Amino acid sequence: MSENKGYYKTDKNETSFRRTWDKEEYEKRARERSRRLKTGDEDSGSNSDNDPASSNSKKRRSKGKDDQPDAEKKVKKDLETLKSREERVNLSGMLGKVQVVQSSSIAAKQPGYYCKTCDVTIKDSISYLDHINGKKHLEKLNMSLKTSRDSISDVRAKLAAMKKKISEKEAKPEYDFEASINNTKLENELKLAKKKKRQQELKKLSSKNAQAENAEQTEISSIMG
């Protein structure tokens, strides 16, 4: 009868190399953690100080905060709130054109959408929009991703402006198609009448000039005999 062994002369059902956990210990910690969350006292448990996972996570969080320079913290605090653009982003204005960029960097010499603020070139319009709306680009413009909270006076001013815009739109007279056609016809008739009058004046003037020339020729011929 052959033995049930593997290639390395070990039992095929042997799983001692796999990682194991103390289930009772972790269940105890989970129950203790849920009890602390219910009572609202997270610092009262003795297991929290002895829990290596929680202590390591706290160390990582504190280390990440301490590693951040004070200057960087100050810069982030001084950033202005996010503002809306006053004009639309023109993505098709330079389509098919070549633009000379005054920059010595390699990014400025590549084809695509060039961002002068960040000195980078983006290959397509979608990525360019993502870039100019991104955190790094806005930080260079001294803006953060946070928006300002409007006050009651701001809301009232906005509502008043919208009401004024609606009232001005309603006060404008409606477009009358028939009246517009009649006005166009009248303008064309006036132009045609002026043109005919001018032609008649030119015709009269030319006839007078012809008569004067004929009289002059007759006088010259009579003198010459």
UniProtKB/TrEMBL annotation:
GO function terms (MF aspect): nucleic acid binding; zinc ion binding
A biological process term (GO) from this entry: mRNA splicing, via spliceosome
Entry annotated with the keyword Protein biosynthesis: no
InterPro entries reported in the protein's UniProt record: Matrin/U1-like-C_Znf_C2H2 (IPR003604), Snu23 (IPR040107), Znf_C2H2_jaz (IPR022755), Znf_C2H2_sf (IPR036236)
Record Gene3D superfamilies: Classic Zinc Finger
Biased composition (Basic and acidic residues): 1-30, 64-89
UniProt keywords, alphabetically: Metal-binding, Nucleus, Zinc, Zinc-finger
Domain U1-type: residue ranges: 110-144
Protein name: Zinc finger matrin-type protein 2
Organism of this sequence: Smittium culicis
